[in-house]
Amino acid sequence: MDRRCVGKAAIVLVVIALMGMTACAKKEFLSRREGLSADEAAALAARLANDECQRLYERRPFSADLYSAELRGTTWHWGRYDPAGTHGFSAEVSFGIDGSDPKIRVHWSSDQVVPNELLPPTREDILERLMPELENPGYPAEILVPELDNQK
């Protein structure tokens, strides 16, 4: 083989390797310089998903380690639609590299949930079932059913 061909091939391989390393370094540099780390993004996403789930369903089923945060361009993505999620809950969260412009979608599916596991009753539901005739007993409900305090 000609020395020129070997030299050109080596240069091409070096350029390709440098381009790949540059792309990876740029992604890491952008996330460190301008925004959140993957762990910080996952923690923020779980908090946002729990806040939305609390608002909709009075539940907080998500933890940061449930899904991996993935940086695509300048946007963090966390979660996915998952009908078999914890008690049927799943979430999709995305936001800018610095946490700005969040988009949160919380899903609840009964596809993989056993009927008696469907949305556990709230404290108020239990009290209403136990004491339907007592609209306002004049004393705190905790006196009647103290073990319900541990459900929150």
Strand order of the largest sheet: 1-2-3-4
- Percent strand equals 15-25%
Average residue-wise pLDDT:
77
Give the strand tally. 4
Helix content: 25-40%
- Give start-end ranges of low-pLDDT stretches: none
Element order, helices and strands? HHEEEEH
Quick one: biggest sheet? 4 strands, antiparallel
Helix count, per DSSP?
3
- Cα distance, first to last residue? 75 Å
Tell me the structural class: alpha+beta
Gyration radius, in Å: 25 Å
**The number of domains:** 2
Morphology call: elongated
Brief summary of the model shown:
This protein is an alpha+beta fold and 152 residues long. It has three helices and four strands; from the N terminus they run ααββββα.
Structural write-up:
The chain has three helices and four strands. By secondary structure, it is α+β, with helices and mostly antiparallel strands. It has two domains: 1-34; 38-134. A hairpin with an 8-residue loop joins strand 2 and strand 3.
Which features does this protein show?
152 residues, alpha+beta, 2 domains, 4-stranded antiparallel beta sheet, 3 helices, 39% helix, 15% strand, elongated
Set down the secondary structure blueprint.
Blueprint (H helix, E strand, L loop, with lengths): L2 H32 L3 H20 L12 E3 L2 E6 L8 E8 L6 E6 L14 H8 L22
Antiparallel strand pairs: 1-2, 2-3, 3-4
